[in-house]
Amino acid sequence: MKAGKSPKRARATSPPEEVVATAQESSQPAVPVADVAAKQEQVRKAVVLLAECTVRNAMALRTSLLDSLDAPGSVDVEVGAVERVDTACLQLLLAFVRERSQHGRSTAWRGRSDVLEQATTLLGLGGTLAISGAA
Amino acid sequence: MALDLEQFHEAFFEEAFEALDTMESALLKLNIGNPEPELVNTIFRVAHSIKGGSATFGFTEVASFTHTLETLLDELRGGRMQVTRGLSDLLLKSVDVMREMLRSVQHKTPIDPQRVADLQFDLELAILQKNQAPAAAPELPDVAPAPTPDAALPTMPATAILGQRRWQIGFRPYPQLLLRGNDPLRLLRELHELGSLEVEVDISGLPALSEMNTEDCYLAWNLVLTSEVTRDVIAQVFDWAEGDCKLEIVEIKSGLAERTAPPSAVVVPIGIASAHEAQIEVATTATLEPAAEQGRSQGASPATPSPAQGGSDSGSIRVSTEKIDEIMNTVGEIVITQSMLSQLGSSMEGPLAEQLRSGLAQLERNVRELQEGVMRVRMLPISFVFSRFPRMVRDLSHRLGKEIELKLTGDTTELDKTVLEKIGDPLVHLVRNSIDHGIEKPDIRRAAGKAAAGTVHLDAYHKGGNITVEVRDDGAGLDRDRILAKARERGLVGATEVPDDTAIYDLIFAAGFSTAEKTTDVSGRGVGLDVVRRNVQELGGTIEIRTERGKGSCFTITLPLTLAIVDGQSVAVGSETYIVPLTTIIESMQLKPSMVNRIAGRGEVFLFRDGYVPVVRLHQVFGVKPRTHELHEGLLMIVEGEGRRVGLFVDDLLGQQQVVIKSLETNYRRVEGVSGATILGDGSVALILDVPGLIRFAAERLAA
C-alpha cells in the first residue's frame, strides 16, 4: 500500500552550501602548456543541482547561478541528482539559460533526471530549457 | 530567506479539520440511494482540498489516501456508483481516518499504517466492484498518489473526443503564489490528470536573474484542457490558489482550437468590477464552501471586494485566540480604570465636575460597547459542539440496536469560545447517557405504547445572562426507587432516611454512582455524571435534572456566557466589599425581626414567597467583623444557585457594576464560595461570590 511511504523520502540530502561545485582553479597561473586542453575541460564552470531542487533551496541555487552567469564558454548544469523540483527553481534555471544565450553563451545539461524533464514539459518549458536532451 | 512552509501548517490543519466536519455532516445528510448532487459535490470538494493541501505540504500519506477517496467520490459524483449504507459507513470511516492522520501529522506522531492501508484497500475495492460494468472488463482504478512528483504522466489523445469539452485556461499567478505554498507545477499536474493539456508558458514577466526574488512567481500560462470535466472541476484545482492568481476558464465552443478567440458566454465572474487587474479573483463562485454559513466564505462573490493580498476569506479573517485574549485583557484594564475615574468623578465638585461626569458617563458607555464588541468576537455558535452529535448518535444507536432520532435546536446560540470548548465533553456524556440508559429498545418502547424510535433533543437558548443547554430524551426516565436502593446499598443514604426526589436524583451525580446492570463500552461505569457536574461547575454553571418515570429525562445545563466579565452587585460586609453576580440575585430585602425563625441545629430561616429560606451570614462564612449582627439592621439578598435559595446577610448594597474576573486560582489558590476576584475603582480587591458553591459551603457549615 502506498500509505507506507515515508514523507521524508524526497528531502534534500546535502546542505545548501554544497550547491555550488564551481572550479576555482581557473585563476591559477602557470599551468603546463601540455595540460592546457585537459585543464580547460576541467575548469569549465559547473552548477550542481540538489536532490531537493525547490523553493527551500532556491536562494542558494540563485547564488550559484549568478556566480556562473558570466562564465565564458559553456557552463554545465549537473541535474542527475534532482529528485524534486518546483516552479521556483525552474524559473531560476530559465532566467539563467535565457540570459546566457542572450550573451551568446551556452549552457549544457549533465546527467538525467526524469522528474526534471517531466516538470519542464508540464510547465511548457521543454523547448526553452531543453533538458530532455541532456547528456 | 528560504520559504518555510511550516508557517502555513496550522492554518492548513485548522481548515482541514473544519472541512472534515463539513464533510461528515454532509455525509450524514446524504440520502441512501438518492444522494443530493450538491452534497456529493461538497464532500468531493473537501476531499479534493485536503488532497491538494497535504500534497503541497508533503503529507504524502494523507494525500495518497485522500486521492483514493477522491477517486471514489468522483465515481459517486458521476453517478457511476450508488450511495449505499455500507458505502456511507465506509466514507464516514474515511473521515475518521483522515482526521486521525491529520492529527498524527500535526502532532508529529506516527500514523497507524495498517488501519489506513486497510481502509484504503476497502475504498479501492469499492471503486473496483462498482466499476465492473457487464460489457467491460474490470479495470484497476487509478490509485496512484497523484501528488508525488514521480507519478507517471498519463498521456491522453489531444483530439477532441465526443463528449469532451475544450477549456481555455488563463492562469496568471500573482507574485505571492509560491510564498503561499502553491506550486504551479502541482496545479498543472492536476490539470494534466483531468485530460489532455496543451501548455503555453508566458515568460515575458521573467526579470534578469540578478533581479529575481526566489519566492516570487514570474511565469504565466495559457492552457487548453481537453476533457469531459466541467468548469467547476477545473476551478477546484485552483482552490488553494484562490486570491493568489488571476484565473480565466473559458470553454472553447467550436472544435477549432482558437486560443485568441474572445471568451464565450459560459464564463467567468471575475472579482470586483472596479478592481484593477491585480485584484481580480479566482473565478470559482461555484466552489463556495458550505462553511460560508459560519461566516467563513471561501469564495469571492462579485459583491464582496477583497484585498489584493490573499483575499480568499472575503468576509472573515482568522485571528489567534491569544490575540483576542490580549485585547480582552486590555479592555478589562480599561474597565477598571474607567470605574476608578467614575469613582473619582463622583466625588468631584465645582463647575467642571458636571462636565467631567457626563464625559465619564460617555466613556462608560463606550467602554461597555467595546467590551461587548470584543466579547462578541470570542462568541461562537454552539453548532460547533452540536455538529458532532449526529454522527455519534448514528453510531451509538446502530451499536446498541436502538432507533434514535436526534433533534437539534438553537444551534445558532452563541457563547464564549472557552466555555464552548469545555462544554463539549459534558454534553457528549449526557447524550451518551440518554442513548444508553434513557432510550429503551424499540420492542420495549412499543410495549409501553411509545413510538419505536426514541428522541434525543438538544436545545440551546439564552436566558438572562446565561446560556441554557438542555439534553432531553423521551426514554424511560430515572428509576427513583432503584437509585435510592443503590444509594442505601452504598451507604450514601441512611436506611431510614427518605430524601426528597430532587435529592435522590442528585445522587446520580455522585462519583462512581451507577445503576447500570452491566457496564457497556458506552456508559455505566459510574464515571461520567460526576465529571459532567464538576466540569459544569468549573465553568461557573449549574446542572439540573428533571425526570418522569416512563416519560423521559431532561438535563439542563446553565452556563455563564463568558468567563471574563460578570455583571455584579457589590455589597459591603464590615470593611470588605464582595461582588454577587447579578444573574443569581432574586431580590434584596430588609427583614423585620418577626420574620426570622430559628431552627435548632439548622440555623435561621425566614419566610420568602412560598417557602422558608435559610439565612447565610456572609461575615461568618468569611470571618470578617460586620457592622451589625442584627438581621433587621442589615440587608438580606436572596440568591439562587442549583435550584436552591439562600438569603445572604450583608451590611449594605453598594452598587451595580461590570467587573473583570481575575482568577483567584491562578493568582492565589482556590477558595470555597469564591469564584474569583476583581479590582475595584479605588484599587482594592473584591471577591466575587460563587453563589452555588457558597450555598453548598454554607449548608455544610450549618449541618456541621
Strand order, main sheet of chain B: write it out: 14-18-19-17-16-15
Estimated share of beta-strand residues of chain A: 5-15%
Structural class assignment of chain B: alpha+beta
CATH architecture of the largest domain in chain B: 2-Layer Sandwich
Task: Tell me the name of the CATH homologous superfamily of chain A.
Answer: STAS domain
Query: What is the share of helical residues of chain A?
Result: 25-40%
Domain tally of chain B: 5
Unreliable residue stretches of chain A = 1-42
Mean pLDDT of chain B: 78
Write down the secondary-structure element order of chain A.
Answer: HEEHEEHEHH
Shape of chain A: globular
Biggest chain contact: A-B, 42 and 45 residues
CATH fold assignment of chain A: Transcription Regulator spoIIAA
Average pLDDT of chain A? 72
Low-pLDDT ranges of chain B:
133-161, 255-314
Looking at the overall shape, the CATH architecture of chain A is: 2-Layer Sandwich
* Structural class category of chain A: alpha/beta
Strand content of chain B: 15-25%
Overall number of strands of chain A: 5
For the CA atoms, what is the radius of gyration of chain A? 16 Å
SSE diagram, text form:
The complex is a heterodimer of chains A (135) and B (704).
Chain A: H1 36-42, E1 46-48, E2 52-53, H2 58-69, E3 74-78, E4 84-85, H3 87-102, E5 106-110, H4 114-122, H5 126-129
Parallel strand pairs in A: 1-3, 2-4, 3-5
Helix pairs in contact in A: 2-3
Chain B: H1 9-29, H2 37-57, H3 60-77, H4 85-107, H5 113-131, E1 165-173, H6 184-194, E2 196-202, E3 220-227, H7 231-237, E4 245-252, H8 321-346, H9 353-378, E5 379-381, H10 383-386, H11 389-400, E6 404-409, E7 414-416, H12 417-438, H13 442-447, E8 454-463, E9 466-473, H14 480-489, H15 501-506, H16 529-538, E10 542-548, E11 552-560, E12 565-573, E13 576-581, E14 585-589, E15 596-599, E16 603-608, E17 611-617, H17 618-622, E18 635-641, E19 644-650, E20 652-660, H18 664-667, E21 674-679, E22 685-689, H19 691-703
Parallel strand pairs in B: 6-8, 13-22, 17-19
Antiparallel strand pairs in B: 1-3, 1-4, 2-3, 5-7, 8-9, 9-11, 10-11, 12-13, 12-20, 14-18, 15-16, 16-17, 18-19, 21-22
Helix pairs in contact in B: 1-2, 1-4, 2-3, 3-4, 3-5, 4-5, 8-9, 11-12, 12-16
